[in-house]
Design brief:
Shape: globular
Radius of gyration: 13 Å
Strand content: over 45%
Number of helices: 0
Largest sheet: 7 strands, mixed
Order of helices and strands: EEEEEEEEEEE
Number of strands: 11
Helix content: under 10%
């Protein structure tokens, strides 16, 4: 059974930082491309960051220079370090694993507010 479990979300003030984690099980993690997506209320889900099996990374323009995606194949976990958070980063953040098919986590809420 495949599971992706996100954690690390919460309430943070503008300019603050959070680190999201997505722990996986039931997949051969090292061969999967891993991504973080987010969905704000009333908006479509959008890609935030991706890391390939060879650790190449890509970011949405809106988060470049502020967010960093990384992976630990020994722990079957992908991370999203989020710095300089803005109110517009408020959303539910989801991780996705992609190889032959996609698997999604249940999401974790990130709220940036003073």
């Amino acid at each position: 059974q495949v599971q992706l479990v996100e954690s690390g979300g919460g309430l943070v003030q503008p300019g603050g930082s959070l680190r999201l984690s997505c722990a996986t099980s039931g997949i051969n993690f090292s061969i999967y491309a891993m991504s973080w997506y987010r969905q704000a209320p009333g908006k479509q889900r959008e890609s935030v960051a991706t890391i390939t099996s060879s650790s190449n990374t890509a970011y949405a323009d809106s988060v470049k220079g502020r967010f960093t995606i990384s992976r630990d194949n020994a722990k079957n976990t992908v991370y999203l370090q989020m710095n300089s958070l803005k109110p517009e980063d408020t959303a539910v953040y989801y991780c996705k694993a992609l190889y032959a098919r996609a698997y999604w986590g249940q999401g974790t809420q990130v709220t940036v507010s003073s």
